[in-house]
Hints:
With 527 residues, this protein is an alpha+beta fold. It has helices at residues 2-6, 24-34, 36-56, 98-163, 169-204, 216-224, 236-239, 241-262, 304-369, 375-410, 418-440, 504-526, and strands at 62-71, 81-94, 267-276, 287-296, 445-446, 452-453, 457-460, 463-466, 474-480, 483-488, 490-491, 497-498. The protein has a 4-stranded antiparallel beta sheet with strand order 1-2-3-4, with no helix packed on it. A two-stranded antiparallel sheet has the order 5-6. A two-stranded antiparallel sheet has the order 7-8. Helix 2 crosses helix 3 and helix 6 crosses helix 10 (375-410). The longest helix has 66 residues, at 98-163. It is elongated, with a radius of gyration of 42 Å. Mean pLDDT is 78; it is low at 1-18, 418-424 and 441-503.
Amino acid sequence: MLVSLLLPLFGFAARPALAQPLELARALQEAQSSHEQARIARLAEEQADAEVERARSDFYPTLSAGVSATLRAQARQDRYYSAQGDVTLAQPLFRPSTLPILWSAEHRRKAAAHSAKDTERTLALDTAQAFFDVLAAERVLDAAKRRLDRARENFATSEARAEAELSSSNDVTRARLDLTSARREVVARTAELEERRLGLGLLVGHAVDGPLAAPTATLARAESAPLPATRGSRGAAERRPDVLALREQAKAARESADEPRFRLAPSVDLLGQVRMAPDPVAGTSWHEESVTLSLSWTIFDGGRYADRRSRSAQAEQIEQRERLLVRSIDAEVQAQLVTVRVARDASRIAEEAVRAARANTEETSILYQNGLARAFELVNANTEQFQAEVDAETARIEVVRGWLGLRFALGLPLLDDAGSEERSRRDAARKARRRVDRRGGGGRVPGRGGQGRARERVRLGGRRQARGPRRRSEVPRRRLRGRATPHRVRRDRTGDHRGVRAGPGHRARGRRRRQGGLRRGADRGQR
């Protein structure tokens, strides 16, 4: 307590830790956890889940209790009042119309889950684009500050040359105009950066004041990753949650459209009831039990077929929307591919322009200091370098925006890096090898030195092929007379190897085995 009171006196009060640069992944997480659109989507999913529970409740029994009391003006059987209570248990046995309602609710729940996922993807795309907009604004502001520094140096050089009577006062005027323009550019770019930070803060749920951490991996992937082929968009419809949501909504609408036809079938309910009278009349029992089996059948319902027509039309509308979305996916993917290709070409050209503009600025500055160039040439070189740097940063951000839009159109994760894709390829290759092994059979076969191996892969015709498991009558490849050849070996009762082109070592081992077999036979004969 005493320490906490003394610290402010010495200026060591507890201060919040320095804000770390905001990373793209953390920005996406904060947007999905705090943005209202994501919460609304999750609440819609919870609502759809509750509707499924409500539809299932039609199959559950219902238990109810009631108490009634009657007061009469004239006595009946010497009583002015009577009271009774009842407990009723109703169990639906067969209600056909509840089945399509339940099926429709289950499809709506799946559609809500896909819609929530699509909302999260859209929010992630908007957040990522806003993140890169802020990053581009930061870099453009840095370029404007560099231009301002060069303008100040040029102004100082122009004044020094004018004082030394090496140049006219018009050079100083031009340098002052360039300095004023550079200041105005810094102010404008600062305002643009603050505006874009406000947009990003609206998405992530808090103010973004500090700098951003440049996602170098995502930038490198966007600039150099291979683009998918034309047929790469065929599976996008199966990955996109908006398409899956419409598909589930269409199924739910079809199930709901079938509900009026299920009304044609009768419903069967079981009803059990217990009535109790606390003060029964003489000669009567205080309780009474009954079980009722009821059959209800709606023979005519004027609105049944109108409901079916209306719901069928609604289902058809959803199906048409799904087809339109599926057809537009291919065009969207192709447009994003063109955008990425054009942005990459523009980015490469802009980088070349930046290098040329920087070289031009340096050369013009040297020429001006030596009196071989005029002030307006130096001002133009400074302005052209700034514009080239702005164009380069803008083009690079456009590459990333196009790359993110392409992954969004394909239904892929936005931040899928090269490492995860490499792991996916390795997992797919491993699964393919396992399928080949299961198809061809397998098993551990004793080999040389007691070690087993499941299969042997041999190269035939330049292609790797898998051979089946070896039989016990086969032995692994052995090196005989300087070359390795597989051998099929048969053994006789004496342990000799037949059908094998054996060397001296093999003959010696066979001789020892025969001698050992003869000795064991002699020992058995003596016993």
